[in-house]
Amino acid sequence: MGFALALGGGGTRGFAHLGFLLALAEQGLPPQAVAGTSMGAIVGGLYCAGQDLAKLVRVLAHLDLPSFFGLPKTYRTVVEQAVAASFLEKLRGKPWRELTAQRNARFLAFLRLFTKGQRFEEMSPPFVAVACDLVSGEEVRIRTGPAYLGIGASAALPGLLGPIRWRDRWLIDGGVVNNLPIDAVADRAERVVAVDVAAPLGGPPTTLVDVALRAYDITSRALRELQLARAKERLGERLILVQPELPSIGLLDFHRLPEAVEAGREAAQSVLAELRA
To answer: For residue 137, what is the DSSP state?
Structure first.
């Protein structure tokens, strides 16, 4: 029986998708369709664009990604910088779209290169990226147009990247509305393999910023659990949930990429026999 893949968001934890896909490829088990949110969209999109994942892992492992994209070490720092920038915006009148313009440009150029300039319509297997409309709050499923732009929109984490203009909309990270996009490919194959790399809540908050971030995490977790429960009810045994062991790997811990990749490989071992059946 064929299967589709739903790859969830989780920052560096999402590099586990690389290991998972590598394990599938080594066993000759290609998915019939792929959906991705945030880091799941990046990895899934590069895979569907025909990237050699083994080479991609080697390249990414040798890149200083935080320096290349101008990223801070933690997401808390991202939020703190965004708060400071908002005060400067009021004082100087600088449009919010300019605050992350350079980082957005580098990120989109990176995606354009690694997706080989393809459009969604050219990708194989078929791919859908999940983003969120910043104005309406609606989930947006992108299946057409330049792949780099749709993937970039799906991964535009607030504060870290600015919203991405897609047609007549401003889009942000799809994890806001659907961090594990099972329903986006539920009708594309007999089974759906969902790889969930969302982080646990962690220890008690220590600052006001931590409290604000924790409140968002709690809301996101509750939404994901509700969506997962509905997917299980709808799909039953057609749904295969995989949750790689990713203890303590943070959102921006890019130096831990090899650990995340290996965790994805190990997680794949638990479902290979089922997928061969």
So the answer is: -
CB 35 within 8 A of CB 17: no
Percentage above 70 pLDDT, the chain: 85
- In the chain, the amino acid numbered 107 is F
Pairing of strands 127-133, 191-195: unpaired
CB 122 within 8 A of CB 143: no
With CA atoms as reference, report the closest residue to 193 among 239, 230, 231: 239
CA–CA separation, 72 and 130 (whole Å):
25
3-state per-residue secondary structure call for 235-264? HHHHEEEECCCCCCCCCCCHHHHHHHHHHH
Kindly report the number of other CB atoms within 10 A of residue 171's CB atom. Answer: 26
Confidence band, pLDDT 50/70/90 cuts, at residue 265: very high
Please give the model's pTM, rounded to 2 decimal places.
0.90
pLDDT digits (tens, 9 = 90+) for 153-168: 999 988 788 899 999 9
Angle at 143 between CA 106 and CA 113, to 5 degrees: 30
Q: Nearest 5°: phi and psi at 34?
A: -135, 135
User: What's the rounded Cα separation, in Å, for the pair 89 and 243?
Assistant: 41
40, 8 contact by CB (below 8 A): yes
- Lowest mean pLDDT of 15-29, 204-218, 257-271, name the range: 204-218
